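Hypothesis: this fold can be encoded by more than one sequence.
Test: take the structure tokens below, design a sequence, compare later.
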């Protein structure tokens, strides 16, 4: 059970004028010397457009610069700022405080990822699984050496995979997946969705290779189709649908 400490009484000034404020509860934990996590609470002013990431950075600037958080683009493109926000995996830069309808905002590191410190987690497992399914177009060497410079596709062919090409590798789907919590070798919904992205691409000829990679005990058959991954994806990738479509190939319903 995480401990709770408050420094609200230590906040003697309000850094930004605002008519509203929320209590931001930040999980603090350094695995190098802490036995367990604890929450620290901060009163943070906000406007209707203020995001959770901006509130965290407000804390870093005015109250405690040691809070560890990963972020970069601030526009839901890089996938860096994934975390648990009021119990749900979300992008902090994409989540507005006013949309959460709560006077208390609790931020914690994503589930199913090792913690580096505070809100920052390690992504090695996600990236290793992503690389495992060969996330690139596979073609014959003879074709690549020919005079042909591009492989044209029809709009219909593009529609088969373009939704799945929107993945930003934020890890929210893996964080929401119940199988990831119980199977440390499970490839995960992010990698499986990207496997489908390339299998469905008419320019790719690596379908059999990828299907062989995921057709194993810790691969696609470990998915129980909870659908949690698709519910939290900020880009509408729908990993659960991609996994079901991949199963169609393995079961012979698709070619």
């Amino acid at each position: 059970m995480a401990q709770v400490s408050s420094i609200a009484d230590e906040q003697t000034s309000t850094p930004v004028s605002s008519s509203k404020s929320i209590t931001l509860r930040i999980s603090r934990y350094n695995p190098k010397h802490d036995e367990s996590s604890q929450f620290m609470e901060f009163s943070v002013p906000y406007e209707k457009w203020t995001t959770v990431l901006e509130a965290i950075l407000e804390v870093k600037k005015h109250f405690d610069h040691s809070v560890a958080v990963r972020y970069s683009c601030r526009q839901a493109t890089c996938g860096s700022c994934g975390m648990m926000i009021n119990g749900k995996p979300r992008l902090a830069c994409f989540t507005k405080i006013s949309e959460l309808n709560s006077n208390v905002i609790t931020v914690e590191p994503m589930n199913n990822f090792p913690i580096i410190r505070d809100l920052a987690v390690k992504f090695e497992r996600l990236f290793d699984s992503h690389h495992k399914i060969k996330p690139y177009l596979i073609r014959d060497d003879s074709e690549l050496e020919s005079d042909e410079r591009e492989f044209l596709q029809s709009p219909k062919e593009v529609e088969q995979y373009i939704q799945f090409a929107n993945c930003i590798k934020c890890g929210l789907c893996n964080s929401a997946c119940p199988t990831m919590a119980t199977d440390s070798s499970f490839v995960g919904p992010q990698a499986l969705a990207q496997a489908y992205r390339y299998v469905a691409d008419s320019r790719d000829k690596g379908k059999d290779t990828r299907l062989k990679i995921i057709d194993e005990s810790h691969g696609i058959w470990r998915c129980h189709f909870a659908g949690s991954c698709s519910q939290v994806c900020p880009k509408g990738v729908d990993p659960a649908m991609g996994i079901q479509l991949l199963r169609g190939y393995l079961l012979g319903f698709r070619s």
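The chain is about 30% helix and 15% strand. Residues 239-250 form the longest helix (12 residues).
Hypothesis status: open.
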